Amino acid sequence: MGSVDRATLTRGGNPVALAASGDRAAGAVSGDRTGGTGAGIRALVVPHEERIAVIAEEQRAVDHAYDCVERRRLGVDRIRSTHGQEHPDVGLPFVPDVPPEFGVEDDLGEQPLVFMRVDVADDPDGRETWRIGRRAVRDAEGDLVVISWTTEQAIRWMKARASRPGEIRLRRKLRLHGRTVTDYLDDIRPRVANRRLQEVPEAVSPAEEPPGENADAFLLADLDRARDGLMRDIVETIQRDQLDLVSDGRPGVLVVQGGPGTGKTAVGLHRVVWLLDPTNRGLAPDDVLVVGPHRGFLRYVSQVLPRLGSRGVATVEVARLWDGEVRAVDTPAAHLVKSDERMAEVLRRVVESGIRPEAPASHISDDVFSTPYRGAALTLPGAEIEALVVEARDSSGPYLVRRRKFVDTFVDRLLSRYAKALPGQRPDGALRSGIEKHGRVASLINAVWPALNAETILRRTLNDPDAIHAAAPGVLTEQEREAVLRPRVSRASEEPWTLDDLVCLEELRHLLSGDEPRRYRHIVVDEAQDLTPMQARSIARRCPGGSMTVLGDLAQTTGARQYDVWGRLAGILSGRDGWHLAELAVGYRVPDEVMRFAAPLARAVSLSTTVPVSVRPADETSLTIARTGPERLADEALARALDLATADLERSRSVALIAPDGTALLEELERKVAALQGTVAADDVPPVSVLPATMTRGLEFDHVVVVEPAAIAGQGPAGPRRLYVAITRCTQSLTVVHAAPLPELLGAPEAPALVAPEEPATSPITVQNGSAPPVPEEPTISPLIAQNGSAPPVPEEPTIPEENTTMEPDTPATDESFRSFVSSLEERVGADRRCHVHEQVRYRLIAELHGARLVPSQSPLADIVCKGPRGAVLYEVLGEGGHTYERMREAVLRIMEVEHVGGDRAEHRFLVLPQAPEPAWAPAMLTTAFDITTIWRDGTGWAGEDLATALGQAPG
């Protein structure tokens, strides 16, 4: 290759690298920076003059697109002026192909209109070249100049793999600064005979590359941009695993589980735009509601959606979703009760208890209700009245609707008695209304079926011990009933309503009158892991069709209520079409070393979720751990924050100081930063924000300084999760400044003090680049799909003895739960061995090993254990259906459990499948993430990696 620089090297998928002689393309990275080794990469060296020519060609196309936009804008302005309209939207329907939001806000800001070119072969429209952008643009003749990225055609082209390009001859990513094309990257390019293009032969076959592997120069450059605390749209650099979820067309609730920096929020908002495209779901903007965790998220939505071509979507902060004023905060115990879906049953019972069929007894004499009315005696047997009450009570509908049914039938009976007593008078509406309002009649109606309102019922439930105790038997425990009680106040206007109370009031209004909030055809919920079950019921009521996009990360739950799996919340939110789960496992924001540092904490707080594998390249400054004395803690943290804020002279970098909530440390940091801003000119103040740990969710900064993580982790049951959120907010670096020992959950080595214990530790020690112990990578997968909660459960790993060289369990005699765990492993093995496919594959492998003159064995926990030429080998055999990724991933967990229980790790570990795996990239992922190799039956033989070792044929 000589002295020619490569513009891009990517891993997997065989993309093309472009460069100019002696002039590196903008945003270019080296092969080492992407983590690639050159295997499977085709590097094309483009002479400088050709690169300039290509950029000029693309610039002409981009200029033409903007000219078309300007022509359309002028046409709209002419129509407005002609019609003399003052409202900016009036007149737009008369202009063909003008979206409703055009003219309201057409400014893309710094975001480019066009970001991709695709050349196709054999196009049915008779054209070869297409441009893809943020919105559709037509020329004066009505021909498409730019197609919207949301169309089926564009989505298909954007998702194409370099290894299987299909109809695509060329796919070119464009990098623009404003309206100016600055660079390009061809990641799909035809093979052409051109002496100026020097091709590096492929070293491996570009099979199914896992998502996240193509961390090209444009993606990495975008990730390196300075951040201001808010996220940005990702349409230019959206990855295949994200795009799969954006364009997921299945009905029902889509749950997107994703760790920090996986782009789940951006996926949700881009999905909104996709849903609004007329060629997809064709929803109108007012059909969609986006529910976010805080106002910062709503500001992000207000910026992103218009730039992507969508306006008018309703957005709301989750705490403001319910009518009323929050005047108080529940105790933790009361919150857990009132937010649980069992509270809905308690409220239903309270409402139903208002109906008293036996009440007429106090209003009748000799089993007959009788009252004079306008010269007639209106009588009705008590038993008949009671039957009318029971009939209406047992009918369908809300409380007040059924009450109306009872009132109408009761008054009808009295009217008939009146007609018989005075046959000459004709009943009319006034007569009917008069009977209903008659004193004795109204008194009986209210005794049998009182007219209630939500506030009265909830006040009685929370203030009256008899009411809650009468409604809760079999639903709430005695302690839970006591937890929700609070002192009675004299007036309703003084009632200390909490957020949970407002949710309960909406539930009561629905029970009483059937009142429902505004309905939507699709709802997006971000940070859904912090929803309570009662809140989920309320949101589901807003979307009776059951079409939702639910975004969250169980490991980042910061509320008092924790969920181990998504099944409970998803089940409440879903309708007739059910729900499905997809997991984003590739991280695009958090640097790799920071994610590895956080991984032990993530696994500790949520066993069922995948820790993202970051594509951000390693950097020697990504992670810094500094220990100092307590009296120096605030000064040291601020000094490091200021250093980070001023380190990059070319661009302003955002820095966040994150400290424990409600502490003197937080107040001191706020005071010091405020004093700094007050004494320095505004232009010279570095962008440093001070935040409590609870306020960092959903935000991102270039640099993050977390102060005293042990204090954050120690603030209640949600403390460890808040710490996990705090340390994963960065895009460039994380600095941890601490005086107290780091939490054990972080798994990081203690930084020793630099002075004797009796002296204050004033000089921090910095552990750079790898201070955390290595953590096995989780698989980077195309979204792991589990239908209706079928994702395999992940049990806790037990504490185990360290010395045991067999695969027999070594059970602590005093730990009954551990013995139960081992028994469950044995039961699963026994169940597998009742599967004919499992046993057929297992015995064929045993025969192979015997043929290699080895002596395979088995245990109650392991399918096959064998001492081969290259050491101990452990095999996990999968039976029918075991070729899917879900089953393979579950089997990986079982291997780890077996090794832990056995107390030793085999030198080689194999999954043995009954047929070829699906998807094809799964074996490579398991090898990379867990060092577990996969083989499978292939006709009459075997296939897979390292067959020599697996079949005992490798030399020692």
TrEMBL record:
Q: Which InterPro entries match?
A: DNA_helicase_UvrD/REP, P-loop_NTPase, UvrD-like_ATP-bd
Q: Which residues bind ATP?
A: 258-265
**Annotated keywords:** ATP-binding, Helicase, Hydrolase, Nucleotide-binding
Residue stretches spanning the membrane? none
The UvrD-like helicase ATP-binding domain extends over: 237-614
Matching entries from PROSITE patterns are given as: UVRD_HELICASE_ATP_BIND
Residues covered by region (Disordered): 1-34, 789-815
**Where is the sequence biased in composition, kind Low complexity?**
16-32
Which superkingdom, per the lineage? Bacteria
Q: Which PANTHER family does the record associate with it?
A: DNA 3'-5' HELICASE, UVRD / RECB / PCRA DNA HELICASE FAMILY MEMBER
Name of the featured protein = HelD family protein
The record lists the organism as Streptosporangium amethystogenes subsp. fukuiense
Upper classification of the organism: Bacteria, Bacillati, Actinomycetota, Actinomycetes, Streptosporangiales
